[in-house]
Amino acid sequence: MNEVPDSNTTPDPERQAEAACEDTAARLPVVLQVLPSLDIGGGGVERSAIDVAEALVLAGKPAIVASAGGRQVVELERRGARHVELPLASKNPLVIRRNIRRLMDVIEQESIELVHARSRAPAWSARSAARQAGLPFVTTFHGTYNFGTGLRGDLKKRYNAVMTDADAVIANSQFIADHIAKNYGLSGPKVHVVPRGVDTVSFDAEGFNPNRMVEVAKKWRLPDDSTVVLLPGRLTRWKGQLLFIEALARLKSRRGPDNFNVTGLLVGSDQGRKSYRRELENRVEELGLGGNVQIVGHCDDMPAAYMRSDVVVSASTDPEAFGRIVAESQAMGRPVVVADHGGAAEQVIDGVTGWRFEPGNPDKFADVLETALALDINSRAKLAEQASEHARSKYAKTGMCASTLRIYASVYGGSKN
């Protein structure tokens, strides 16, 4: 039976993380994180690398990140870390081979003591460089890294398996840890489940400036009395935008057009997928939702978008490795509705901090949306408190960083024994 988080007994994750960092700092190595790029829009790989680099700096250690560069390099360096630009986004075997020597030069120049790879192509170079330098090697599985079937599937699986050949393997959800065990035969103490961390300072309803919410509402021309259901995520088919539209159509049919004062917002860049965007627009018109669904593109102020929403949904048709929006919106006290699979479902206490529905089923999706939208004021307030406490106790970035630093210290200490 799921238990409701109790704010009177739950330890403060921020204080726990600070204490853990202080205890770990003296045992930390100099870490080189390796990833394809630091461009905006990539997701958890880049965000996690920046957060951990900042934690290393705050612990008094140098933090070095190697990538092909991108617009987030400025943020990384603003947090006190150093960036080394290398062609690590390339999957060309010759470039990967040359990157071994390039990384070995970085290891020597920066006195690196541990290498952490966050993606497959860089991991092939990083593993060889770390092994040749006699350094411990850590990886993070940020996704499922699908491989398919047949000969091509076997080759892809071998390519993916570099992520398991490490002294410590970090899985960003239990779903990913189970995936590693099932498909690569790796489990036990070498695999560490460290959920993605969200910035609970930025995603905090307490003290939030309502003017930010007003600005977002103006930009999207939202009626003041409209009930908003938000689906954040880049426009790609597996994120479930079509399923979302189908569920809203069913809900509108049940309530009747005169009693359906709901606006569904699809927030996220199409990243050049113009044909899919047109498909979504056409489906909205076909189902008579022209006044009920808006495709608003990228949003620079997601906390404001969450605050303006009444319900936040994650409708992915394929299991998410983690699903950051679920933790972010719960941290802000918003009711969440998620497909019941993958790392996103792990984050929701069904009926307590949100609701889960059968993946791919628009009728079940509509059912739980109706339940979420029917909450009265007192029920919403209670859920908001429970959801916020749950997210802050389990998914704060301070906790993620503290766990990662402990793994670094443990692996580094073990390599010297």
Q: What are the salient characteristics of this protein?
A:
single chain, 417 residues, alpha/beta, Rossmann fold, 16 helices, globular, disordered N terminus
Describe what this molecule looks like in 3D.
The protein is an alpha/beta fold. It has 2 domains: 13-197 and 397-416, 3-Layer(aba) Sandwich (Rossmann fold), CATH 3.40.50; 210-394, Glycogen Phosphorylase B (Rossmann fold, 3-Layer(aba) Sandwich), CATH 3.40.50.2000. It contains 16 helices and 13 strands. The strands form 2 sheets. The chain has a 7-stranded parallel beta sheet with strand order 3-2-1-4-5-6-7, sandwiched between helices. Helix 1 packs parallel to helix 16 (397-416), helix 9 packs across helix 14 (362-373) and helix 12 (324-331) packs across helix 15. It starts with 12 loop residues before the first helix and ends with a helix.
CATH superfamily of the largest domain: Glycogen Phosphorylase B
Please give the CATH architecture of the largest domain: 3-Layer(aba) Sandwich
- Spatial gap, N to C terminus: 43 Å
Largest sheet: 7 strands, parallel
Number of strands: 13
Order of helices and strands: HEHEHEHEHEHEHEHEHEHEHEHEHEHHH
Computed structural class: alpha/beta
- Share of β-strand residues: 5-15%
Poorly predicted tracts of residues = 1-9
Q: Tell me, what is the CATH class of the largest domain?
A: Alpha Beta
Overall number of structural domains: 2
Mean pLDDT: 92
How are the strands of the biggest sheet laid out side by side?
3-2-1-4-5-6-7
Share of helical residues: 40-55%
Number of helices: 16
